[in-house]
Amino acid sequence: MDPLPPEDPLDYIDMDDVLRHGNPADWTYHGPKPGSPVPAHSRNAGPGTMKHYDIYEDDFGDEIEVHYFRHPDGTVGDVKVKPRS
Amino acid sequence: MLSPPTSDLLQRLRQGQCGPAETARLERTAAADFVAELRGAYPLTFQERRVRGKWEVAVARSLRTELAARPIRDSSFFSLLVVPVYLDCVMVSAEGDAVTGVSRFGRLRVRAVGKPSPGLALTSSAGYKLDLTPDGWATKPLPKRTVRLDEAFLKARGWRFHHLAQFIPTP
After folding, report:
1. What is the ipTM of this complex?
2. Residue A19 is part of which domain span?
3. B51:A60 CB<8 A
4. pLDDT for the residue B171
């Protein structure tokens, strides 16, 4: 059986962040932040989970970071928007 | 009626001053209990979505209307629009039964737009968000913003249009 395709973290952006940055489908992907991904060691991240930091440009031309866990089965978790740092 | 700890958390969130005490309380509180308590004081749910283990709910304390002036092209006159505004808004995100985000802001103004596609222009006032990121809790300021979101996207995101039906014709 084929594995499920990996989830898109943009499907999990919080609605309050949509109200500040626009429709995630319209954001422009600028690639991963240097050093990303890294193994996750948080208590809510199981073995094999990676922590990703991706950079996007939002609807307003601002660069933002999307932080999330990518689990070994391709699902994502704790997807959050942060200001560019 | 909100419990004193929840009332205190929302008060501190309004000022962007949440700290370890607030995050520890959120970690001890089941998301379903937190949302149920909020709904008692914030009776208008204007957005709710579940996708796999994620749950997000947006509530407001009240809804009122304002008049907005709109210029008429090539005329010195203007027209008036009735604009619905949600007041005192709280948006909650959860994964499983754990709260992973709470934001609070004063106003959400809703205006129907026809271009580039039918939808809503949503203007949210400045506020703060207490957010659980993969690296821990953080409080971030939310700027005042207007976004245009099309109807299909809003429906997919669980937007509730029924409060607006008396002000904005909806299908």
Report:
1. 0.91
2. 14-83
3. no
4. 52
Domain count, chain A: 1
Rounded to whole angstroms, how far apart are CA atoms B131 and A79?
10
Question: The whole model's pTM is what?
Answer: 0.92
Q: What is the pLDDT of residue B170?
A: 55
Residue A74 domain-assigned? yes
Query: Cβ distance B86 to B107 under 8 Å?
Result: yes
Decide if B150 touches A, using CB distance below 8 A: yes
Assigned token pair, A66: 């999307």
DSSP character string of B21-33: HHHHHHHHSBHHH
Note whether A78 contacts B103, CB cutoff 8 Å: no
Q: Is residue A3 part of a domain?
A: no
Q: Is residue A8 part of a domain?
A: no
Taking a C-beta distance cutoff of 8 angstroms, is the pair A8, A52 a contact? no
CA nearest neighbour of A16 among B157, B18, B83: B157
Contact A16 B53 (CB under 8 A): no
